[in-house]
Amino acid sequence: MTAPQRLTDRKREAIIQAAIAEFRANGFDITSMDKIAATAGVSKRTVYNHFPSKEELFAEILNQLWARLTAEKETPYQTGLALRDQLRPLLMAKLRMLGDDNFLDLARVAIAATIHSPERAQDMVARLGEREESLTVWIRAAQADGRLKAVDPAFAAQQVQGLLKSFAFWPQVSMGLPGLSADMQGSVVESALDMFLACYQLP
Fold first, then answer.
1. pTM of the shown model
2. 76 lies in a domain?
3. I need a surface site. Which of 59, 89, 128, 132 has the fewest CB within 10 A?
4. What keywords are assigned to this protein (predicted)?
5. What's the total number of domains in the chain?
6. Over the stretch 169-192, which tens digit does the pLDDT of each residue have?
7. Of the candidates 195, 202, 193, 203, which has an alpha carbon nearest to the alpha carbon of residue 86?
8. Residue 6 belongs to domain spanning
């Protein structure tokens, strides 16, 4: 049973990767299931066995993007440890995820395919808006410990992550710029920490 299952999984992954390539090259509306099947090296019937429609196939790509966003390790708040030292690894992990080539590929597909479809865009934004959870939880815990000002934790989390994305996501997705060097990653994180702590840390 395991060998056929692995073959099925490999075909499914080949279909998803082919769909990403086709969506990136041609956009959602022009891409056909026939072309996806040809690119994946499988029959059209195989594609439909895994994904009953192009919309469901695209939804799976969005789900993979979503999974990457939610795969970050939880880093619980620690009383007595400097806020900067706790936040730094959280932000560095976020920056590494934003710079991942596979993640950027999925993001480009999702963004390109949602531009002309408000329904798809709303679904994606709703999904992404639910996340950034580990940082939100961390901020809430730091507030409960009396170390951060009383601000909406989700708002503050979105703010600091927006600082990262302005350097390490949007330029790469929208303009094709290369990822940040290790030195630049460090500079972006330290600058974001400076701004966040200057705004919200209690004396």
1. 0.76
2. yes
3. 89
4. DNA-binding
5. 2
6. 999 988 989 999 999 999 999 999
7. 193
8. 2-52
